[in-house]
Amino acid sequence: MLQDYSHKNMRPLTVGLMLRKLTVIKKCGFNYKNAPVIIGINLCNQAEFIAQALHSALSQSLVENHTAQIVILDDQSTDNWQTCCQTLIAHPCVTVLSAFCGSPARARNQLLDYASTTSAHWVARLDADDILDNAKSVESLWLRGEASNADFVVGSNRLKQDGQLLSVTNIAKPEVLLNPIKLTGFIKAFCHGLSENELPSCNLLLNTRVVERYPNILSAEDHWLIARLLLLPEYKGEIVSLPYYSVYTLDGIDTTNNKKKAIWTEQRQRLAVAAKQWMQAQQLPFKYLGSGQEGVVIQKGNKIEKSFYPWAINDDHVSWLKQALPNNNIVPQVSWHKHNEKWSYTTPNLYTSEIQLPISAIVVGRFLQGMYAAGICGLNIKRDNIRQMKDGSLHYIDVGTDIQPLTASKFVDMSARLYAIALLQLPDEELVRRTSSTSQDKSLQQLRGFADFYLALIEALHPHVGLSVLNAPTDIDFGIHQDTTLLIKACAQDADVLFAQVDHIVTQLNYPKKFKQIVLLLDSYQGPFLRQYQQGDLNQLLTSANELVNNGIIDELLIAPTSIEAISATYRQWFGASKVTQSHTTSQAPLFSQIWAFNQVTTRYVFQCDCDVLVGRKDWQHDYIADMKAELIDPKVISVGFNIPKSTDAFVPYFGQDGQFAPEVRMGLLDLIKIKQALPINNPIINDKYTLTWHRALQAHQKVAGLSSLRGGDPATFYIHPRNEDKQAATLNQIRDLVAQGFFPVEQEEQFDLMTHANWQYPRRKEAVIFLLKGRFTAINKLERCLDSLRMQSNQSFGIVLIDDASGASHNWCYPILLDKLLTRTTLIRHQSIQGRVCNFIQAISDVCINDESIIVILDQDDCLMRRDVVKHLLDAANQGADLIHMPMFRPNKPLKLYQPSYSNIRQKGGGNVWAHQRAFKKSLFESVPHSYFKKDQDWIPSVTDYATMLPMAEVAKAPVFIDIGYSYFHQRAEYSLDVKAEQGRLLEAIFAKGPLSIEQQ
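^ that's the sequence the OP posted. Answer follows.
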């Protein structure tokens, strides 16, 4: 059955940063709007209890006299609780809110944060499965709190189990709760199960000025809060023993579930230890600064000391922090100590101040850049943990387990939280990690301005991802040979290769200095031809020639005239006779068109060549024209031939006795002034046709006139001439590309003519890490950025396979120049016709790469690496046995989206992000996948090949690994059109419809 490939339909619940999205479902009436007391009820799927809780709240005296309103906060309930109490919530004193909180502690904190934005001064807690004991329950606590200006008031409660009141009650005793020594003893007793009573934590009236919140732990969060309120010196509390405040349900859902878990006992035992440490810290002759979930902080003179709870940090994390913390003021400079199996540290008092909101984006950005550069993330971002230095810079003081190694995910987390607090001034808990069906990036998009801020932040951290304005090496003016024209000669037989060959010749020759003019000569003669190998097609020849003009590859198109007058006049000039009117020689070799073209050239020198020559460049800085013109200074030298493949890289002195060599007709530089000064020259006539071509006639004249044509020079630039019988060889396009790069087999050395049967093949690669760079018409500045990111790698032991899928020589001629020193480690493949993505994969991985253990890294030409140590980490992973490797990708058009792969049941997870960059795999893993997985029906899949290749590889990988040390890969592309997306959708359906690949199928 066809499976749905949709990411949306397959997305499971995930944990990520989410906004609470507080929404007012129902507002209380006007008479309750400014009530000083809020009775706060949090619920999540507690429909069976909420009605009785609401009844008890509505019966309160403070509600009846409009002094209290009831606020219900619904945390993602799905039990349709409103239907069982519609009449109750319709009361004008009731406000109904909804929010995405994710835990009881965070729901309570959301209600407290909401209350702090209203005119209310007090929040009375009521759990949805409890009830208030009597009509005066809230009033009794409120009157005591108002009278003493307290921060909180604690009351007593009765107990109910299985619907029945118990004889045992939980009396709040001021002589215990307000005495630190007795209180810590009591906490120790009940936390270890030695007391019938617990802290009366549910019976709390809290002033809205108090910023203390419930810790987000799995159990006993209310006990931790009440213990801190009672023990910490900054808070003033009152105790109301009677009347009872509430009736507490012992078989409540959360309590029942928690008691079944070890965490229930563990959190209470930890509270006993922490409470004792809080009390002891206040008894020391030092200034108590604060405490949290990790330990207690005091000031000793000019030193700050943090003492950790025994469980709060381990030796391994301390060891990591010692080497990880940067030596700057982003975090404290600490000295570690261990005593009685407990860690502590001291740090100099920098006399920082509380943060003053809002903070500028520049200050926030600098802090985050410093953390990223240090390779660390602070995960406990809140107001108490961020201080400001005297210069305004930020200082993260919470050194402990919440400082973690940098990952892309944690960096987004830290950045978003700090942005929300420092710039948007949102509450500390507005943005926290929660379980949700909404993706994190979509949630973070709701943070006003954050996406733009984060994009700028990442680009500032990786400035090399920016694009240069330079679009090609030829944008730099290297000068022009003002006295030299390039003349390319073609006839009707060349029609099918004209565009590719002229494009090749021009781009190979027009650097480092340009010709003044590039001219294409067409001979309109349609046969028979000398050494004819196919029928000529003059119409196609003209079409291709005009295309060359329109694309700016040639400057001028010359078509030799056919009039008798023009032919006679030209022959008279060159050979002293005008009676011959045939354009070709007795052997059908072209004559007239070429010498006529020489007469049209306006420069002294003409570099003339046949359109079928293959031009090789070993050194793109070699100014071969300057070398050749230097030889023409000799008044006896009329031409210099172009070099051929040599068996040496050494310069070969130019040579040629008088008349030894004819001017090189296939490819050479002519001095037209000297040649025209020698005219007319002898050329025998038979049957009204000349017998010699122009270059053979000049050779004969050289012998009698003491002139010469030379050969030799620097073999860094050379040419090869395909014979007519070889011009339709299937490998000719590949040979052209290899020659262009300066490659030729040993059999080709010292040979003018192409040796088609020699071993023409692209260089093989066997490095441990090989980058595969594929593309078509990639912008030059993007390819340059990509290559620069490879050049910056700290480990340079990698190889490269770079494939251009038929962009044409006008575009890709400069790739060897861009590669520069990388060229010696690169296999460059430039196709003449489009091969398609899968075929390029197979050619690169199966043919070019010959080491089964090589790690193949996919790096698109318009993307780049973001880190300098990518190769190092890839090698480390491979050495540890990894056969499939991912590293984090950053997309500037989706800056908040993370792409963490999942390697199990990936077809049920919409691909599980295994398709995402940066992806790498062993050659042997790729070759273990049957080619049928790369096809739709019988055709290669033309796009979404990231899915087609990676899904089956991920399914059979034995050791996949995701290395997250921060962003590794910068992926930049334009948005696809609707038509492209539709086609991709159809292809994805076919890909996901294939059965998962198993090891047994390999």
